[in-house]
Structures are given as C-alpha cells and as structure tokens.
Design a protein that fits this description.
Rossmann fold, 42% helix, 2 domains, six-stranded parallel sheet, 412 residues
Amino acid sequence: MILLYIDPGTGSMLFTILIGMVSAGLYALRALIIKAKFLFLGGRQEKQSEDRLPFVIFTDSKRYWNTFGPICREFEKRGEKIWYYTASPDDPALKETFEHVTCEFIGEGNLAFARMNMVKADIVLSSTPSLDVYQWKRSRDTSYYVHILHACNDPVTYRMYGLDYYDAVLLSGAYQIDQLRWREHSRQMPEKELVIAGLPYMDELQKRLLAAPPLEKAHPVTVLLAPSWGANSILSRYGGTILDALLATGYHIIVRPHPQSYTSDKQMLDELMRAYPAGESLEWNSDNDNFDVLRRSDIMISDFSGVIFDYTLIFDKPILYADTSFDRSALDCWDMEEELWTFQVLPKIGRQLTKETLPDLKQLIDTCLTDPSFQKARDEARDETWQGRGEGTTRTVDYLIAKRQSLLEKSL
C-alpha cells in the first residue's frame, strides 16, 4: 500500500482552492435561483433580502473580546442589531446575554473563513488582517469591510498585504495614516477610508484602573518580566542569565511568560521553572487576566510585545526593552525607509537592555524609576498614539452606523 503525504503548506493551499471552488459553485447556483425568481416575477426586482445582516463583527480569537466587547455593549445600549461571529469556542462573548447582539461560534480555522466568505452583510468589522489574501475572501454579498486596530502601534507591521483589501481602517494616531497612505501609494492601491476613532480596549482598561481600589502603599519594588514568545523572546535568548540578574537586584520579581510559550517554548519554559522555582522573591504568573500583575509592578521588562504600550501609557510606568531582533522581511514595512514609530518612541520611554548592560540591571531599573524625563516622554507618546481617549467605543459605533446609512442611501 502506498501512503500519500501532503505537507501542511500544500494542504492549506488545497483547502483554499477547495473553498474557492465550493464558493464559486454556490454563487453560481444562487445566481441561477435569482434569475429564475426574476423571470417568475415578470422582470420585477425583489426588495433587499431580509437575511442580509446590517453589521457583523468577525474575530479569529477570543483574546480580542477586550476590543469588541465594548462595541457590542454600545450596540446593545443603542438598540442596534449586530452579529458577533467568533472562531473561538470558548469566547467570553458566548456567555453574554444580549437582546440586540447575536453571538455565534462559527467554527475554527478554515471553517470560520469558509463561513465568512459567504456572509451577507452591509458592514463587516474585524481586527483580522489578510482579508482577500489567504483563506478569508471578500464575500460578494458584503458591501463594506472595516478593520479595527487592537494595539496602539504601527499598522504596517502586519504581514504583507495585511490591510490592502479593506475598505476602511479605524486608527488611533495621525502617524498611522501617514504609514498606510505611503503603503497604498507605493503599491498604487486605491486609498482606503482612514478614520481616527481611538482604542476601545484601552479606554476600558483605563476605566478599570481608575475604579480599582488603591494598592498598599508599602511594598517592595516589583519588577515584571513579560516576554513575548519564540526564538527571539527574552527568555529564549537570555535564559537563566536574566533571571540571575533580576534576583541579584533584591527586588521582587514576577515572571509572566506569554501564553503561547506554554505550547511553543514548553521545554525551555519547563527547564527554567524547575531551575528557578517560585519563592519569596520570585513568582511565576499565568493568570488569564494580566491586570493584577500590571498594577502591582513598578517597572516592566519586555521585548517588542504590544503589552509595553498598555503598561506604560495606561498604568503610566517605565519600561526596559530587550535587545531582540526584528525581522521585517515578510511585513508590510519591509521597504520602509523611515523608522517605525515603535522604535522611535521606545528609547524615549525606557532604556534598552542588552547582554552588555545586563550586569548593570539594578542601576538601569533605578534610573527608569527615578528619571523624570520618562514621564514627559510617556505623555508625548500617549498623545501621538492614543487619540480620542475615552471616546473609542462611541466614535467607532457612530462611524459604523453613519457609514451603513451612507451605503444604503447610495444603493437607492
């Protein structure tokens, strides 16, 4: 018996082709049905199908509920109907009780994309990049696609063509408009509608912080090590060396590995946790919610994880960022001559940690905790990348409702 092997890449490509063939067949069948109805009605056009949805949110992961939750609640408050489609079977949205918001699990991976490829809607809102690039295709029965950022950083750091085929992008800073216009013009792509709407999840996190009870005034200096995952993360590159340097400071250390590390970096992580067991000076944190450790710590050490900006702009605390490589070869910024906003601002809001400066870690931490220039830099960064503070949700919903009304008027 001959065993056939198909590598994952080829399998994914074949699945994409299959989805395309099935979609084309379904559309052809639908066209025949519509034509038959048209002839049956004596050439009279039917009104817009009642099963066409006004608004759809699509998310490929439950971790973006912090972005979409406030938006769904605002739709609910206004009595406006919206459908929330998720590819996570344990998405927190599925436990919510709404009257006007319909939350539905539509399958994982390619099954979710296959469902979205056929969706009938006026507007689809999503934070998932690569629309019309890989498995997720624009539906012929959807009028308008809107992308919303889930972090306050450079929108050209998605993989290539990440935002090219959206109709609009909701942003949080003027520099993001400049970056996307540069990318459009360099590819001779039509200009998208770019709107500074703010960041709903950051607004909600700030509200949560303001409502939280005060911490105990007397507590030891607490350092949070919050790496990303993979070969270039802090723990992968520095290993036990950075933990030795942190423990030598005499400060309380919290290590919070990225959730993906427990899968992708399991062996490395298991070895470190055995070699450095939790104790009075060291704790390993794996809480589902990072709010507590962000609030309890006085300074964060990370690499280029997006949590850096959540920490420094919302909790208003200093950071150390590790010297890790950043490969832009597969990203939309691969040929960008100007330095990314992230790398322009990092040296202003914190200090870089390298192998050479690791022995001076305590001095670096103390400098970041006491130097007043970092406070000024945080204020400036906040103004640049988090515009519309406190209004992200209302601005987003206002835009979506007005855009749909405009689309309906144009179709008359």
